[in-house]
Amino acid sequence: MDSAETTQEREFRPRGWLAAIRCNAFLFDLDGVLIDSTPAVQRVWAQWAMEHGFDPDAVVAHAHGRPSLSTVRRFLPDADHESENREVERREIEDLEGIVVLPGAVELLTSLPPQTWTIATSCTRRLAEARLRAAGLPIPQCIVTSTDVTRGKPDPEPFLKAAAKLGFLASDCVVCEDVPAGVLAGKAAGALVVALRATFPEAELRAAGADFVVNCCADISVTESAGILELRLKSVNL
Predict the structure, then answer these.
(1) 182, exposed or middle or buried, with CB in 10 Å at 0-12, 13-18, 19+?
(2) What pTM, to 2 d.p., does this model score?
(3) Residue 124: CB partners within 8 Å, gap ≥ 6?
């Protein structure tokens, strides 16, 4: 594959607010991008926060998009972090009520060749697989979870590993994220980042470095030709 095929190419078309991007693969976050688990996340972390005497809103805000272990370490620096994290994971795996697929996610995934997409999530592997099964989505062979990395988002390691598992550089991929920590991770990995307005205000996603902001996966369509993916983004503010 020559350099012209592996370099992200952008074509801006102001009329109709339509953008077209070429890449080799997609790296998706899970929660807030493909599925909505917000009610479950809020329930588990709010309960955990109250048990430990913390402000639930502050804990929940910090937990979004980060490995649960990092949240435990942030709020309980002197605790048995592994034990606390296992308890949080147990509660999250047991609380799958209300987990649903977000608009456009199924259509987008089924339009992609299997070897051109994967998930890089801050969930543990057991939790990610439980949520994917609850939502009825496939579990990609190359999934990267917090179980597979040393440094979670906003560090670029999850996206660098996910791209490598697919056989690409992260700079040849498009990252889809919904939280500032994930946007920062994608940009640090060298990827172009499409952010979704599912969890955080657009201004915060832009401040983190998002290249494009759309409403949901339904605003992304993909065609494939000769191993190159062409994305078209609708409802985009350029």
Answers:
(1) buried
(2) 0.83
(3) 67, 68, 89, 145, 146, 147
Whether the ω angle into residue 154 lies within 30 degrees of 0, i.e. cis, is: yes
List, for residues 32-91, the tens digit of each pLDDT value. Answer: 999 998 888 899 999 999 999 999 999 998 887 678 888 999 999 999 999 998 999 899
Residues 131, 183: Cα–Cα separation, whole Å: 22
pLDDT score of 7? 41
Where in the sequence numbering do the catalytic residues fall? Answer: 29, 31
Q: Residue 234: its pLDDT value, please?
A: 82
Instruction: Residue 235: name the closest of 213, 210, 204 by CA.
Output: 213
CATH 3.40.50.1000 fits 3-36+99-233, yes or no: yes
Annotated domain spans of the chain: 3-36+99-233, 38-94
